[in-house]
Specification:
The chain is of the alpha+beta class and 382 residues long. It folds into two domains: 47 residues, no CATH class; 237 residues, Beta Barrel (Thrombin, subunit H), CATH 2.40.10. The protein is built from nine helices and 14 strands. A six-stranded antiparallel β-barrel has the order 8-9-10-13-12-11.
């Protein structure tokens, strides 16, 4: 039996919320999200969310949990479908026969290429059907506004690999399959805390980051705030030691209209610099959480730092407006700082202390980039 709203004492402190058990609160949130509350109960719960930040975060966490369960179910169905297709091919026999003689490879190719192409195409179609059914391609608010998680050309590459390659290769360290999509992230601390956009890592089974020289590290999600499109990651790879002192700082006050800014990110498999200026102090449709910046950005730039000429991080690139050249958006740095304050201390395995010493001030743009590049990473989602 769900607890009634009369059993809840509204308060701004979660410790003053009196319920019979934590289970009842979760049940109440579940009913709220599923639309099972009466109009009166729903209205009271909306008030509770507004007045109690802890309850509001629990609602967001439960909503993410439900979404992850749905995504997991979809992936299980996809894997079962692909496994069924795989069972129709005698891959082991094909590989074994292909090793001794190139002539046999040609014969196998002639014999199995149609089945392989069909299997790859079905897998490709199934993946896209799954993505569509889970709302992967849905827009945030309007067809003019799109978040910039890079949809890597992995599916097509995988299909070509099935058709063109029957050889056996050594397994390198780290994930052997290509990432499904990616973006950019950058360092918060020298001990491995990073930041990117929440939409970049949405639906991830595992996440890796790669630095400018190609070294990859496994990371885990420490905290997410979908409302501000912010995700905090931490490098947990045994091969990681330290990044060294960060050269930039995080600006607590706002950027000025017309201020020159630049960003460094991974719209392709190497770092790309883009520069411009703050064109509006609000984001899409007057969103006060973000700036509009006149900078040309592309898929993969999401999660990249937006810096001013003095080397202060003033925002995080997260979206752009279609059909408007250079109209991009960045979450303001003050909301990053708010997100950090919201992280439960018991979820941190190491201290998260932001750098307060800026070593970029007074340097030329070229020299600034030389110092920054080791702290900006490509985010790869699997």
């Amino acid at each position: 039996m769900l607890a009634t709203f009369e059993e809840i004492v509204f308060s701004n402190n979660i410790k003053n919320v009196k319920m019979k058990s934590e289970f009842e609160l979760i049940s109440q949130i579940d009913a709220y999200l599923k639309g099972e509350l009466t109009p009166e109960e729903h209205a009271k719960f909306e008030v509770l969310r507004k007045e109690n930040q802890a309850i509001d975060h629990k609602v967001v966490e439960h909503q993410n949990f439900i979404s992850q369960l749905a995504d997991y179910s979809q992936r299980k169905e996809l894997m079962a479908s692909m496994e069924s297709i795989h069972q129709t091919l005698d891959v082991k026999s094909m590989v074994e026969e292909s090793l001794p003689n190139s002539v046999i490879v040609k014969r196998l190719w002639n014999k199995y290429r149609i089945n392989s192409a069909i299997a790859a195409s079905i897998a490709l179609i199934t993946v896209f059907a799954t993505l569509l059914s889970t709302g992967y391609f849905s827009k945030l608010d309007s067809s003019d506004y799109e978040s910039m998680r890079r949809k890597m050309e992995v599916l097509q590459k995988s299909q070509n690999a099935i058709i063109n390659n029957f050889s056996i290769t050594k397994h390198p360290k780290g994930p052997t399959s290509p990432a499904q999509f990616g973006g950019t992230g950058f360092a918060l601390t020298q001990n491995g805390y990073l930041i990117t956009n929440s939409h970049v890592i949405k639906g991830a089974d595992s996440i890796y980051v790669q630095n400018s020289v190609g070294d990859s590290y496994k990371v885990k999600v420490i905290y997410e705030d979908p409302k501000y499109d912010i995700a905090i990651l931490r490098i947990v790879d045994p091969g990681f030691t330290s990044l060294g002192s960060l050269p930039y700082t995080f600006k607590k006050t706002g950027a000025d209209l017309g201020e020159d800014v630049y960003t460094l990110g991974f719209p392709r498999d190497e770092q790309v610099l883009n520069k411009g200026y703050v064109s509006s102090l609000t984001g899409y449709k007057g969103d006060t959480v973000a700036y509009q910046v006149d900078i040309p950005v592309n898929f993969g730039n999401s999660g990249g730092p937006l810096l001013d000429n003095k080397g202060n991080v003033v925002g995080i690139i997260n979206a752009k407006q279609k059909r408007a050249d250079g109209a991009s958006f960045a979450v303001k740095s003050k909301y990053l700082l708010k997100a950090l304050d919201s992280i439960p201390e018991d979820s941190l395995e190491a201290k998260l202390v932001l750098n307060t010493k800026n070593s970029l001030r007074g340097l030329s743009r070229t020299d600034q980039l030389k110092k920054i590049q080791d702290y900006v990473f490509m985010v790869k989602v699997y």
